[in-house]
Write the structure tokens for this entry.
Amino acid sequence: MRRSTTSSRPPAASRDARQVFLLKVAIWLSGLAPVCWLSAGVARGALGANPIETIMLVEGRWTLVFLLATMAVTPLRRLAKWNQVVKVRRLLGLFAFFHASVHFLAYAGLDQSFALAYILEDVLERRYITAGFASLVLLIPLAVTSTKGWIRRLGKRWRRLHRLAYAAAVLGVLHFFWKVKADTFWPLLSALLLAALLGVRAYYAAAKRRKAPRVA
């Protein structure tokens, strides 16, 4: 009997591929849901007395959600021993940049009518806008170089460049904290989550240095 030339994928690999696919679907749905909700709210006039403020607040929060989720990929891979989760990191990072861009465009376009002089004045004089704008600027090269082509061209430099995500997340949390006046629960929660993620990374980095052979 002739053996079938069609190779069947091992059950474990098939299960991992299915899990990654479902996770990507969930990320796409959660990434697009806020924009759909806001668009429907604008159409129905249901975003409250200050819809522009609502748009900026929602998009700013989702930017942090996706930034923190992106940073959680490596700790999750190490703690859960699930290497396949790294396949969704690029998608999470791109959604963080997407929501950061919508957040900024809502401010620059809807709130400031693209008046560059006023925007520049805000960036220079209002610390929470300075932090938020700096975070967005740091995310731009990360989004541009997220493709396989850029990863190949940059080589080892790609990892060093993408460490800017840590600084972008710190600036994003500061932007959120300085923006709110009384209700600091969510900014503080974001700061605690960020500190925990950075702590896990620092622990594994220290453990790796301890295991590295010393040069006499």
Notes: The chain has one domain: 12-204. The radius of gyration is 21 Å. Residues 1-6 have pLDDT under 50 and may be disordered.
